[in-house]
From TrEMBL:
GO terms for molecular function: ATP binding; ligase activity; metal ion binding. In the N-terminal section; belongs to the acetate CoA ligase alpha subunit family. One of its GO terms (biological process) is tricarboxylic acid cycle. InterPro entries: Acyl-CoA_Synth/Transferase (IPR051538), ATP-grasp (IPR011761), ATP_grasp_subdomain_1 (IPR013815), CoA-bd (IPR003781), NAD(P)-bd_dom_sf (IPR036291), Succ_CoA_lig_flav_dom (IPR032875), Succinyl-CoA_synth-like (IPR016102). Gene3D superfamilies: ATP-grasp fold, A domain, ATP-grasp fold, B domain, NAD(P)-binding Rossmann-like Domain, Succinyl-CoA synthetase domains. Residues 490-526 form the ATP-grasp domain. Signal peptide: none annotated. It comes from the Bacteria. Keywords: ATP-binding, Ligase, Nucleotide-binding, Tricarboxylic acid cycle. It comes from Salipiger thiooxidans. Pfam families: ATP-grasp_5, CoA_binding_2, Succ_CoA_lig. This is Acyl-CoA synthetase (NDP forming).
């Protein structure tokens, strides 16, 4: 990961401000003001050729004339002058720079050329750059505010465990301010702007390896380097640092121009969703959700290690509301065991004790019974996490003391099981709960969603050490430069270990009949053409042929229809294939995503999948365990189990085929445009899965 040299940016001992202004309200004046006023302990070197003094500090005409070499330079100059400043800094040995200046690649080709030159200069000099066109960076623990955001002019965030990385400066400033206003502490803050060197992924990786960071909040408009982003997210997961992401932009990319089923179903947003699930990122759908989840992850003593959620409520209706939300988020709200219900009934005779446990408003008269209730819930009920809804009880100061101390004792007795407290509270009451380490929400469904996020990250962190080897493929043939027919496509996939039906190519209907006699019936006959991708659309497929005459007649008819409906298509002949044993039809595919490269798709239903859109995606490559999670995501997943008289399907073979296809796609990389394996026939458990048809579209096409 490219985090070398970034200590000079986030933990410098000295900072030069190039373009420093005596006016603390100007872009070049703000960082000087912030560094002075907010207590940066290192050396501040204002650089201004027109003034010997800036804001009470000795200023220097250029970086070359500064008395010492700073670790970090903040550059607030017009674009051409900024390039010269980078050159001067590199010559002086400065190791990092934050560039506020605009007028680079975000503007035009001339600006892009200036930016490229600046990057070349920095890399030759071993210097890291943040920006240009960015709002800057901060390290709250070090009182380092290398920024011009008004968000830290009057009020500073307290030091804490939330690090923020944003491609947008304005949104990044908004996030830091909201974190402060919600009472959370900030550690590192980075806005990456044009990301000419230090990009979003580099900043995430730096935060992930930082011991003081508990949770990473991210704002992403688009990935600039797939490998760096994946590596950063994997590092964050390995170090158990939750990444809570706001990713904007939900438009599909390239679907209309694509000829394959896979590409038409793969929009850029669907791929981002899949990639985030694959690498353990929580994608928030709103600003409120992003902050709720960040808050829970930053302040909770533990993640939720199992699916069993306990709900304790003074309102039966709110209990149902929370249970409904939990079910939607795939948390289990199990009925407590009979012995646990009996024990609760003995101490809480007025309560509904099944789960949700409705303690009713009567609990207010015996508030100490809440502790007893939680003891039974965690001990006898074996619940993994709990939400306690107390309506307006949190507004009553003397009751809060009893509730809080009782819950503290429960936490000591059952460590590792998160408890969220949900109630209206006065600010001082909320602060007391949070000081005791409890997460407080006012709205109950938001509390449930936060708990679901704690469960999500627990699952993700458990996968960090998972043994899920990617299939090793060797001796793969190179992809052809042009389209190939079905038989050639399946032969390429067979090299990757994907099972295919027995088949042969026949030039004429008579040759097809002879081949069928040797192969045995029933037979499937199809047009063989690199130019006809959807054979059934032109009548180019005949199923369940059981005699020489049927094969000969069907072959003649298929060739006639191909000539009539696709007169310009190249015709290689007829595919003569054994008819696969009955099974469940699946579609496997590969498409190229602009951000993530080769992406694998899975769905059920053959041609119906395009109408239903019930598909899942993963970034290639991945192993069989990840493939099983991919399989589990589709709505039609139950069809793979024993269902209405149909047998359980060979999910292991299906997962292996997906993993092998992902390794094949990763091996060929950008040389591959799309693959459709449609259908893959998934047999009963233990009987495998076989590709009955396949299309491979290489990136480089010939003249057809």
């Amino acid at each position: 990961m490219r985090i070398d040299g970034m200590d000079a940016i986030f933990a410098p001992r000295s900072v030069a401000v190039i373009g420093a202004s005596s006016d603390p309200k100007r872009i070049g004046g703000r960082p000087v003001d912030f560094l002075k006023r907010h207590g940066f302990q290192g050396t501040i070197l204002p650089i201004n050729p027109k003034s010997p003094e800036v804001q009470g500090l000795t200023a220097y005409p250029s970086i070359t004339e500064a008395p010492s070499t700073p670790d970090l330079a903040v550059i607030a100059l017009p674009a051409p002058l900024a390039v010269q400043a980078v050159e001067d800094c590199a010559a002086r040995g400065v190791r990092g720079a934050v560039i506020f200046s605009s007028g680079f690649s975000e503007v035009n080709a001339e600006g892009a050329a200036l930016q490229a030159r600046m990057v070349d200069i920095a890399r030759e000099g071993g210097m890291r750059l943040v920006g240009p066109n960015c709002l800057g960076i901060a390290n709250v623990r070090h009182n380092l505010y290398a920024t011009f955001t008004p968000g830290v002019e009057k009020h500073l965030p307290k030091p804490g465990g939330v690090s923020i990385v944003s491609q947008s400066g304005a949104f990044g400033s908004y996030c830091m301010t909201l974190v402060r206003m919600r009472g959370l502490g900030v550690n590192l803050w980075a806005t990456t702007g044009n990301s000419c060197d230090v990009d979003f992924a580099d900043a995430v990786a730096y935060c992930a390896q930082d011991d003081e960071t508990r949770v990473i909040m991210g704002y992403l408009e688009g990935a600039t380097d797939r490998d760096r982003l994946v590596e950063a997210l994997e590092l964050a997961r390995a170090r158990e640092k939750p990444v809570v992401m706001m990713k904007v932009g939900r438009s599909a990319v390239g679907a209309e121009a694509a000829q394959s089923h896979t590409a038409s179903l793969a929009g850029s947003d669907a791929v981002y969703d899949a990639a985030f699930r694959q690498y353990g990122v929580y994608r928030a759908q709103s600003v409120d959700e992003m902050f709720d989840v960040t808050y829970a992850c930053a302040e909770s003593a533990s993640m939720m290690q199992g699916d069993r959620l306990g709900l304790v409520t003074v309102s039966g209706g709110v209990g149902v509301l929370m249970a409904d939300e939990a079910e939607k988020l795939k948390l289990d709200v199990p009925a407590l065991p009979d012995h646990a219900q009996k024990k609760l009934k003995e101490v809480l005779p007025f309560a509904g004790v099944r789960n949700p446990v409705d303690v009713t408003a009567q609990l207010v008269n015996q508030i100490d019974l809440l502790e007893t209730n939680m003891d039974v819930l965690f001990g006898d009920g074996e619940i993994d996490g709990a939400i306690i809804f107390m309506s307006t009880v949190g507004l009553v100061a003397d009751l809060n003391e009893a509730i809080r101390t009782g819950l503290e004792r429960i936490r000591e007795k059952f460590p590792g099981r998160p408890m969220l407290f949900c109630s209206l509270t006065e600010p001082e009451g909320r602060a007391a709960y949070e000081k005791s380490g409890f997460i407080v929400f006012e709205e109950p469904t938001r509390a449930v969603r936060a708990m679901a996020a704690l469960r999500y990250f627990a699952r993700s962190f458990a996968r960090a050490g998972e043994h899920d080897p990617i299939p090793e493929l060797s001796d793969l043939s190179p992809l052809p430069d042009d389209m190939v027919n079905e038989i050639e496509a399946k032969a390429l996939l067979a090299e990757a270990g994907i099972a295919i039906v027995r088949e042969t190519l026949a030039k004429t209907p008579e040759a097809a009949a002879e081949a069928a006699q040797e192969m045995g019936y029933p037979i499937v006959l199809k047009i063989a053409s690199p130019d006809i991708l959807h054979k059934s659309d032109i009548g180019g497929v005949a199923l369940n042929l059981r005699s020489v005459e049927e094969v000969r007649s069907a072959g003649a008819r298929i060739l006639e229809l191909a000539s009539e409906k696709a007169p310009d298509a190249r015709i290689d002949g007829l595919v003569v294939a054994e008819q696969a044993a009955p099974g469940l039809e699946a579609i496997l595919g590969v498409t190229q995503d602009p951000a993530f490269g080769p992406v694998v798709m899975f769905g059920l239903g053959g041609v119906l999948v395009e109408a239903l859109g019930d598909v899942s995606f993963r970034v290639a490559p991945f192993g069989p365990a990840e493939a099983r999670r991919m399989i589990d995501e589709i709505h039609g997943r139950k069809l793979l189990d024993a269902f209405r008289g149909a047998p359980e399907r060979d999910i292991g073979a299906l997962a292996d085929a997906l993993a092998r296809l992902s390794a094949f796609a990763a091996h060929h990389g950008a040389a591959l445009e799309t693959i459709d394996v449609n259908p893959l026939i998934v047999g009963p458990s233990g009987q495998g899965a076989v590709a009955a048809d396949a299309v491979i579209v290489p990136t480089r096409r010939g003249g057809h």
